[in-house]
């Protein structure tokens, strides 16, 4: 029987359309055009040929499209951008979402997940969505991550999704994500830190090939609380989480002052940084690797990556969108789908 990583390596990646009025279609087209020079793995775009062809024409790019199903995408990829229908056509002009935008974006995500779950695709790669457009259409999730978790639910159990921002220079995981700073502090608990770190450690082994991942946990407060003089949370929440993780046999250090965790020498001492809130994690990785950072959702029963930027309505259709982060997301999804877990 063929090993699963070899089978996964031969499956195409399912790339969602994202917000049709954003730069998702632009960078998908550009990524395909760079398939040879950038070593882009085979993927198909979930959309419709008329819409993608019109966007390519607006961009002044010559491209061949192949309307097909997922099973035919790899064969088509060398000579044409494979387009797989998700059932809802988009009509939005660049920078101007319309009534078709929300369902075109959501049906693309649903179809991508269904294809991966059915074994037709090796991973889901998502183009950026516009949350305000989805909210206006009745979308009830904070974002992509929570929607994907619901689609992955099985037997009434929804997995805990964990957001990782990965780049060759730095991998970071925030424990709390899209919350105000006040809410993030209120919701931070020993168990939330422990469960997030466990998922990150498992993924570093199973998806990134690190047999014994080294994790560092940032302190919540300046100087990790300075022995309680700048806040007690690092003594009462973060520290006990570190102790619990170590007792489980994980290689964990912390809480460490966040302001000294991300310089060159410090980054060489760990594989992944677990941070307490959104900006504490995302500012360093976006500073160090803005163009090649990839958003990875851990904790799901399938692989999902995404470029680490938004819809960029202001440049959609102009030809100025940079496909580098999408190409990095495609490459990482292929690597994660193909690599076997090391012996431990």
How would you spell out the order of helices and strands? HEHEHEHEHEHHEEHHEHEHEHEEH
Strand order of the largest sheet: 3-4-2-1-5-12-11-6-7-10-8-9
Radius of gyration: 20 Å
Overall shape: elongated
Number of H- or I-type helical stretches: 13
Point out poorly predicted stretches.
1-6
- Estimated helix fraction: 25-40%
CA-to-CA gap between the ends?
Answer: 23 Å
- Strand count, sense and closure of the main sheet? 12 strands, mixed
Keywords:
twelve-stranded mixed β-sheet, disordered N terminus, 39% helix, 13 helices, 2 domains, alpha/beta, Isopropylmalate Dehydrogenase, 344 residues
Please give the structural blueprint.
Elements: H1 4-10, E1 13-16, H2 24-33, E2 43-46, H3 49-59, E3 65-67, H4 73-77, E4 81-84, H5 101-117, E5 124-125, H6 131-136, H7 144-152, E6 162-166, E7 171-174, H8 181-187, H9 190-206, E8 214-218, H10 233-247, E9 251-256, H11 264-267, E10 272-275, H12 278-288, E11 294-298, E12 304-307, H13 324-338
Helix pairs in contact: 1-13, 9-10
